[in-house]
Amino acid sequence: MYVVIIGAGEVGFHIASMLTQEGHEVALIDRDPEIIRRASEELDVLTIAGNGASKRVLQQARVSQANIVVAATDSDEVNMIACMAAKHVGVPLTIARVRNPDYLDENASVSTEFTGIDFVIQPEAALAEEIAKIAELPGALDAETFADGQVHMIEVQVDEKSKAVGKPLLKIGIPRNVLLTAVLREDDMTIPTGQTVLRARDRVFLTGKRQGVLEAAAMLSQSMRVSKRAMLLGCGSLGLQIATALETHGFRLTIFEKDYERSVHAAGVLRHSLVIHNEGLDADILEREGVRDMGLFIAATGDERLNMLSSLLAKRLGARRTISIVERTAFSTILESIGVDLALSPRRITASRILKFMRSGDVLSASILDKSAGEVLEFVVAEDSIVAGRPLRDTHFPEGAIVGALVQADGVHIAHGTSVPQAGDRAIVFALPRAVADVERVFSGDHR
Amino acid sequence: MNFRFVGHMLALVILAIAVGILASAAVAAGYGEDDLTALLASAGIAVLVGAPLYFSTRLRSRTSIGYREGFLAVGGGWLTAMVFGALPYLFYGMFSVVDALFEAISGFTTTGASVLVDFNQPHGIMFWRSLTHWYGGMGIIVLFIAILPPLGGGAIRLFSAEAPGPVPERLTPHIRDTARGLWYIYVGLSTIEALALLLAGMPLYESVTHTFGTMATGGFSPMATSIAAYDSWPIEFIITVFMVLAGGNFALYFAFLQGNRLKLYRDPEFRLYLGIVGVSVVALTISLVVSGSHFSGLHAFRESLFQVVSIQSTTGYVSADFNQWNSFAKTTLLLLMFIGGSAGSTAGGFKVVRILVLAKNARHDLVRQVHPNAVLPVKVGGRTVPDGLRTAVLGYFFIYMLVFAVGTLLVSASNVSIITAASAVAATLNNIGPGLELVGATQNYAVIEPFAKVVMIGLMVMGRLELMPILLLFTRGFWR
Fold first, then answer.
1. How many domains does chain B have?
2. pLDDT < 50 positions in chain A
3. What is the pLDDT averaged over residues B393-406?
4. Chain B residues near residue A260 by CB distance under 8 angstroms
5. DSSP string covering B114-157
6. A274–B379: do the CB atoms touch at under 8 Å?
7. pLDDT in tens, B161-184
8. How many helices, marked H, and strands, marked E, lie in chain A?
9. Per the domain annotation, does B474 fall within a domain?
């Protein structure tokens, strides 16, 4: 597959790096020669310095031969024009990042008929959606659904008090219909076996039906009790989208906003939230507004340093879970190690959404897991796939990947070695990045 | 000040009244009664004054209407209407000058407070009496905006000075089309009600006059005992339905007819309006049954429903002598007088939407005790009420109460009981009609002293025009 990526910022760079790891051809365009120089050193891609909306530059990247064009520069207009130009020369799939809500219609998407862009991602809306999804599952760090909501996967952190700590997986009695798909320890993602021993602060990925997954999660983490109260710091355009998304999920928010005009606007738009005109940075006011009763604390101001520090403060004051919005993903690892539960970056979400969308064809959906250490893919088992019609343990399944669940004619099943996938079944597969390409080949039945 | 424009509007008002009196004269001619000459004479005088004024103030192509012209045209227009509307009563010799003015303004302001004792009057003059309601209900000036050539950008100022409610809703790009839409609905609902009453067995003449009284939320009835004269379930029910409709926001009906069905259902003011009616009916029914008088449950419900709707929609029709009811029931009705109907209706009173804003504002003041830095915009129907409008409602409440207090003080100077004075002021300021005790359901305003009547004339106009257009005429700054 040949992919042209316009904009080598964090999003473009990340996507390029994921794609090259999977063995695809990538051309990366950016107007900043310095960034381009660094990208060419670090990534195995074709790099071009220039304006991605320019016809000349696009021709130089042989855009007419591209399967996919991704436009993720800082400029909405450049992204849209580049995609429209790419569409014009017959690129089958175009993806643009568009931030400004003025360009979006009421469904938060750009009209496809008008622009010809196949997929528009609005980072703030995507992030807000993500937070709402996580908030719905208290204690969960991430949550995804597959097969039209029949299969759930959530990420939880094992806490010290859990009985599962220090025992091999076989002995902790996870419900039979739930699969412990992967374990993330520090930055290292592994696929566990029955002998794997969990430690406190490990992050585990559970796959199965909603109820079973929640039960299993409760065994590993204490913080699964539902609280519909949340506190939000910062109500600019991102904060407002988060608040709106949470409100639609039945949350009641207490919101701090230091800018008066913005707080008035937010208070006008939101229905069940209390907007406080204050920076929300000192312990006194946070306590007075009840931070210790909050199930969730989200810091979403425009200043990522402020977000990190205030999340730490809120955590210390007793907020059960804290989420920090950061721009640079580099910080998220340290943050999470010093007590902030989750550091989310709009860019990371954007990259993950774009990758998810790019996996068209046999892949129905895909999700990038924590720190991009793994992916979850959803396939339809092809007629001539090597896994079709025989037990999984007899197939030569790629190392570094595991089938999590099968959606068969008679319902959802957790996959075991004895499970027999049939053509037409849907399979939810977890894969480490290096195994993604192999897995795709296995399911598509393409044995080149 | 553009006096030419104001004069032109006044001329139009006078001519419109001439048309109405002529229509009444036609009724008089039809019945062949002796009020024909009085009516024709009144119409003649109106034409003699109105026509020269009209032609001498013909508008030049572009006129500019400011806020002051708007207020003066509307305030002056209503006072002019009162004078010319009183002519038939004077010429027929049934009232003194003050009484004639009182009856005329009570009609135009859709109050329905009457000084008429002897209901054995000819049909033409009684028709005129009910027609004044119908004129005043949707507003004469709004009618002009609807039927006259476009007045330009200033028309909205006229419209907002006359239409009830804090902010008139603009339903269409042209204010003229909005005014037309409202009048279409008004005429349409009136036609339906008159037909329904006919079907329920009411004679044509009475159906029409009662319709005028209902749709305008007026309350004049050609019958001495008002709706109680029929003692008929179906008639009371039909009138109740149309009183409820007349007290609701016509803009919502407009939206409803244009296909926006949910707007009516979701409107917070309309919901609260119906909610207040519902709760009051239940409370009143229980109180009437419990108080041990001869009410059966069903009977109590029937009387409560009619009376609550009649008072809250500020109509003032009477189906029972509620003056005989227990204290709780009477107090409930007295309080309902102050709430009144919805903004954008033909009803008077403080208006439900203002109550809504006041209540939310008060609740926010409580929340602010606990969260001193909270930003709490007052929202109605999901939309933020602008700060200026919010404080305007607070200010309006103060002036309203001040006018009520001063009015009660002045009326009580004529040596009536406190209840009579307060309820009479409430009933006139809120454009209802019947009050309690001396001015109660089966009583009438004839016994009130002339000075108090003059006070009430002022109250009725202020109530109908929502204070400002009249109060402004008495401020020095207005005339500069």
1. 1
2. 360-361, 448
3. 94
4. 375
5. ---------HHHHHHHHHHHHHHHH-HHHHHHHHSSP--TTHHH
6. no
7. 777 766 666 667 777 888 888 889
8. 14, 22
9. yes
Residues of chain A that touch chain B, judged by Cβ-Cβ distance less than 8 Å:
257, 260, 263-264, 266-268, 271, 274-278, 285, 289
Average pLDDT score, chain B? 89
CB B309 within 8 A of CB B243: yes
Minimum-distance CB partner of B373 among A266, A271, A276? A276
Whether residue B143 lies inside any domain: the answer is no
- Choose between B222 and A383: higher pLDDT: B222
Question: Which part of chain A has CATH 3.40.50.720?
Answer: 2-121, 229-349
Give the model's confidence band at B151: pLDDT under 50 very low, under 70 low, under 90 confident, else very high.
low
Q: Is residue B177 part of a domain?
A: no
Which CATH code for domain A139-220? 3.30.70.1450
Q: By mean pLDDT, which of A367-371, B344-348, B442-446 is the weakest?
A: A367-371
What residues of B are in contact with residue A285 (Cβ under 8 Å)? 373
pLDDT digits (tens, 9 = 90+) for B229-253: 998 999 999 999 999 999 999 888 9
- In this prediction, residues B373-379 reach a mean pLDDT of 89
**Short-list A149, A157, A159, A151, CA closest to A207:** A151
Give span(s): CATH 3.30.70.1450, chain A: 139-220, 374-444
Q: What is the arithmetic mean of pLDDT over B195-216?
A: 94
Domain at A374-444: CATH architecture: 2-Layer Sandwich (3.30)
Chain segment B11-47, per-residue pLDDT in tens: 999 999 999 999 999 999 999 999 999 999 999 999 9
| Residue B447: both structure tokens together | 């016994």
CATH among 3.40.50.11890, 3.20.20.30, 3.40.50.720, 1.10.287.130 for A2-121: 3.40.50.720
CB A123 within 8 A of CB A116: no
Residue B474 carries which DSSP code?
T
State how far the alpha carbon of B225 is from the alpha carbons of A423, B119, B219, B329, in Å. 85, 9, 12, 20
Residue B442 domain-assigned? yes
Write the burial class of residue B203 (CB in 10 Å: 0-12 exposed, 13-18 middle, 19+ buried). exposed
Considering the segment(s) A229-349 as one domain, its CATH architecture is 3-Layer(aba) Sandwich (3.40)
pTM summary value: 0.77
